[in-house]
């Protein structure tokens, strides 16, 4: 096991530093867009199911890009893909803000952009794996989660307040500006590194499908992927119902966004503690316990809660997302060098796809059971996934580390 790395060491690497800060800005913008659009859809339609679908609109379609375009991060210059991704997000947010589209068209646009997300996420993951080695890679991935949680705190709290005071259209314009800034920043600060140089006589689509199949037939890679995918999918299914839950139990105006912001606040604390205070081996052993912590608070939503209690429970739940840090090193070590970009893209694809299924499943449950009961069922299912991970994913299954 490699020596524990520090945040300073990781951030001293210029390529990672640029990817890290631009990604943090983009995540905050994505979160703001999700909250604004979700509130807009729910208030327009009054449908808890459509409100939940808004949370998952950019998730489920990612399976298309992951399966059919997933090889691109191992074939194309990384700066080109990252800048293009942020620019496309900016254009989509601008159209949502000023297009005056019906709900179905807005969801279709978000879904279309989501199809390409695995390509951009895979590129960022490959760059991180290429420039960081050993525990520096794990700490770097932990920093991404810290950035994600911090950006989501701002995005969710700011999203709820922005919608309450200036409306969802203005919030979407801010989203567009943030993504455009991230695109410009990446264009100026990232070196124009060459394409990774993966060679194949297959077409892009055939190569992508073949590469995904090769990764998924590996039992270690497959189990680590499903361990990364399943708990967030179940939790997001419950989390996506918080806005209709808040409306039904009469939270104050804007409180739903603040309660949602408690989740990434808890994520920030949990990721910080796990990354900085636990040894690499201990992080791996703590994965099932953290997954259980992720799901347990949702069970309490079976009864009507006030906003303060809900916020505390969401913060505790958020801390459980740190389970992913204990899987990062093992995942990287299990990958072939020439498929790292596609592997990280596939990891992102599965994560987003499963998170798209979660809101559909538990949102659909609200047609037959109360919203709070559906949230509680999501929590029970997450705790069940912790038991599976404890049995199926063990630290001893990791392969011999691949030299960086």
Give an overview of the whole structure.
- The chain has 19 helices and no strands.
- It has helices at residues 7-11, 14-45, 48-56, 62-68, 78-98, 103-114, 117-131, 134-165, 168-189, 204-217, 219-239, 242-248, 255-277, 280-285, 287-295, 307-319, 325-333, 340-365, 371-392.
- It has 404 residues and is mainly alpha-helical.
- α12 (242-248) crosses α13 (255-277) and α15 packs antiparallel against α16.
Q: Indicate the CATH architecture.
A: Up-down Bundle
Overall number of domains: 1
Residue fraction in strands: under 5%
Note the main sheet.
none
- As for the CATH topology, it is Growth Hormone, Chain: A
Helix content: over 70%
| Category by helix and strand content | mainly alpha
Low-confidence segments, given as residue ranges, are: 396-404
Q: Compute the CA-based radius of gyration.
A: 20 Å
List the helices and strands and how they pair.
Elements: H1 7-11, H2 14-45, H3 48-56, H4 62-68, H5 78-98, H6 103-114, H7 117-131, H8 134-165, H9 168-189, H10 204-217, H11 219-239, H12 242-248, H13 255-277, H14 280-285, H15 287-295, H16 307-319, H17 325-333, H18 340-365, H19 371-392
